[in-house]
Specification:
single chain, nine-stranded mixed β-sheet, 1 helix, 294 residues, globular, five-stranded antiparallel β-sheet, mainly beta
Length: 294
């Protein structure tokens, strides 16, 4: 398997995209609608390419819990196929080949407790309305959005998360967890503009993934997940932001090509211990915490 390849996860009954090799031989990190998961190769089935599928904006939707047929026919088929991927409200998308007869359309619906969605799903003969599970919004710096329950709302709601701050002007990064705090010197990139591929990590908020060995560079690595510009959630590691940035990480090294790069190996070992002590849940997967680039 190689990065960007589509796979099927039988245990989750969901599709995913290979992000990188994991630290364990034969294991891979897979981006799924519920976040990043680590799976052994034998638990992944390669999918044929579907070039017409709009995967750049596809988001996961909560499992439908109410199904109501809206067509004039008296009854719906016994086992309708529920789509697993949709986009934002009001936008049509193409689904994988096995869902070629389905058309999915999200409908906004505001509830007293927050925000919920309905999905209108059309087949050749039927139109269904799926009532999605309620969506909670939490103000603040953490995950929030309009496609599912996205998190707990920043460090204040995630007391076990590590909080790191990278200062571009002084080339330093500080990570704090509980009473522990470590500051390391970072290596600035040679490119100065942060809207260029190898420029400095753009200012803003990021989720920090779990540590693994990068499949290409063979060094310890934390994936960074930029917060979306419209405050609706986070980009995946492989998604490009509006300025075209993606594949940003936190790692050790003497050369920086767009990541937060810790120069000194001893300091890396210390700050790594603090980061590894952090944990939080996001879309069903475990992350280390938050990074703020200033």
């Amino acid at each position: 398997l190689h990065p960007g390849e589509r796979v099927w996860l039988p245990d989750k009954k969901a599709e995913g995209t290979v992000v990188d090799k994991a630290g364990t031989p034969g294991s891979y990190i897979v981006e799924t609608p519920k976040g990043q998961l680590r799976r052994n190769r034998r638990h992944l089935n390669r999918l044929p390419e579907t070039p017409n599928t709009d995967t750049s904006t596809a988001l996961s939707s909560p499992s439908p819990d109410v199904q109501t047929a809206t067509s004039p026919e008296p009854t719906a088929p016994a086992t309708p196929v529920a789509p697993r991927r949709t986009t934002r409200s009001g936008r049509e998308i193409r689904l994988p080949e096995r869902f070629k007869d389905l058309s999915v359309h999200l409908l906004p619906k505001v509830g007293e407790d927050g925000y919920s969605l309905q999905a209108r799903v059309k087949t050749v003969k039927w139109t269904y309305i799926w009532n999605m599970k309620p969506i909670k919004h939490f103000p603040g710096a953490g995950p929030e959005g309009d496609d599912e329950v996205l998190g707990q709302g920043g460090p204040s709601r995630n007391p076990n998360a590590v909080v790191c701050t990278s200062y571009r002007s002084s080339n330093q990064v500080t990570c704090k967890k509980g009473g522990s705090s470590v500051t390391c010197t970072t290596q600035p990139p040679t490119v100065t503009r942060d809207d260029q591929d190898k420029g400095p990590t753009p200012r803003g908020e990021y989720l920090i993934g779990r540590r693994y060995i990068h499949w290409r560079y063979n060094i310890e690595w934390y994936n960074l997940f930029p917060k979306k510009e419209d405050n609706s959630g986070y980009y995946s590691y492989t998604q490009s932001t509006k300025t075209g940035r993606s594949h940003m990480g936190l790692h050790p090294g003497s050369v920086s090509e767009g990541c937060v790069t810790v120069k000194e190996s001893t300091c890396w070992g210390n700050i790594r211990s603090v980061i590894d002590s952090g944990t939080m849940q996001y879309r069903g997967s475990s992350y280390s915490g938050f990074l703020y680039v200033k």
